[in-house]
């Protein structure tokens, strides 16, 4: 399990009088609230009807009883785990966690004591068999050892147990009178607990003295929660409004809002609309967006009545996956090619001096974003200044604000997704991909087609795809162990024949002028005409061409590349010649494999790079600074 990260203040409280979540110590009704202890980072979000149905469906499968009573508000807190796990908060209590088990590919409920009390509330222990499931009844005499010494439940102390319990199931331990003592993981099957006279039966996760389950009346709505948080929201909104006014007034650029179809960018759009009159909406269609997102973008454009500028990556992802292989958490080339590149082009085409973009970024999303400034310049999007007015907002702030303003949020949130964006993002959990098969089977089928084709080409099994192993370049320990257990071959490194890898040797030049020479080979033919048309060698130095070869002069350094794929270079010392050969390798790769993302266009301060027929082209006005080379995804991710 990952270590909990404190990315901001833990703000979740609950008003017992109103029975709603409150993001502060005082409710709108005037009464003090009780703090709810949840696992950091504490980015609380509402449980929609779909979420509640899923939780109750899993609970009924496990315990033969629903966990969340009808008419009660619930919030979810994403907690650190190997895949996806959410803490379930109802009536101000953490009732349980629901998590996705990677090996079984199933959701599992891990009840806390309050949740267990509710599940078994008012149940006669003698009637448990055939009624509820996953229960263990222990002798009253062993209770003190569990509560006072933290001991495990031993088989000799078990009076009865659900025979359907399997080893490692989540179980609830009861006294003969039906009081819940602890919850934990079964260490043996239910029938073994009944029959064995030795050994650990249950390893407790949570244990506490018996207490009555107190279930307050339901019937609350999210409108009630909005009213309870009214003053807290007003303060956050006013602070964000002031920030927007100050930034827009101090940066002499046209104002835009980067809209993604997600809740955070919608909140930013709503905030900007409340204080600024002159702004435009930007949307980058990555080509791998949910259908609901594309429809929502059109709806949002109409709703706010502002110019909506859209750029699309088209099929860039599907065209590029054969070159780069599947994206991984470590090498998310798709972000650069499908999102940042199109954004660079969109801004370059519409804003002569670049633009100021208000962006939906929050500190509770990740450590990197928690460390980010509220105003920044993206190194990948050189013509855009970014600013976030919601850096300190939690997800619940966002949702209460959207509920309050009736802003048109993406309906995909009501289908079990907690975030919007590219539906095949490698940083998504395995649970999200199983969710995709349910909500959008046609998208899941398309992704699996490409992944299975890649796996077959690389000698990997379908299980490598099933368990989401394609999402990693460096595998976490839990997945290494799973692969060993299942006999799944892991890919040591993601590589494809199209890498155009340059093998190089260097040595002193055998002549009186001295210096260092280098010889290398791509191991395959190079199309010199493509090199010339792309102008990519201009980034290295002054280029010239003859039939079957290209030459580059960079100061005192020289290099040549031949149609055979051979490359040679010479310079004053080994460091310079290696640097020269690297630039040659990357420039040839860019010329042959350019994906047309446009990242380099935004990095050229001299306007020497333009897009032509979907590919980047460097003009003769190039100053040979080479700044565009290393930012290319072909350099960064291959």
Describe the structure.
- The protein has 638 residues and is α+β, with helices and mostly antiparallel strands.
- Among the domains are: 229-415, HUPs (Rossmann fold, 3-Layer(aba) Sandwich); 430-486, no CATH class; 497-636, no CATH class.
- Helices cover 34% and strands 21% of the residues.
- It is globular.
Structural topology:
Blueprint: E1 13-15, E2 20-22, E3 34-35, E4 44-46, H1 49-63, E5 74-78, E6 85-90, E7 93-101, E8 106-111, H2 113-119, E9 135-138, H3 143-149, E10 153-154, E11 158-161, E12 170-174, E13 180-186, H4 190-195, E14 200-207, H5 222-228, H6 230-250, E15 254-258, H7 263-275, E16 280-285, H8 291-304, E17 308-312, H9 316-324, H10 333-350, E18 355-358, H11 367-371, E19 375-377, E20 384-387, H12 395-405, H13 430-439, H14 441-457, H15 462-466, H16 477-486, E21 503-508, E22 516-521, H17 528-534, E23 542-546, E24 549-554, E25 557-562, E26 566-571, H18 574-593, H19 599-603, E27 609-612, E28 615-618, H20 627-631, H21 633-636
Parallel strand pairs: 9-12, 15-16, 15-18, 16-17, 18-20
Antiparallel strand pairs: 1-2, 1-3, 4-5, 5-6, 6-7, 7-8, 9-11, 10-14, 12-13, 13-14, 19-20, 21-22, 22-26, 23-24, 24-25, 25-26, 27-28
Helix pairs in contact: 5-12, 6-7, 7-12, 9-10, 13-14
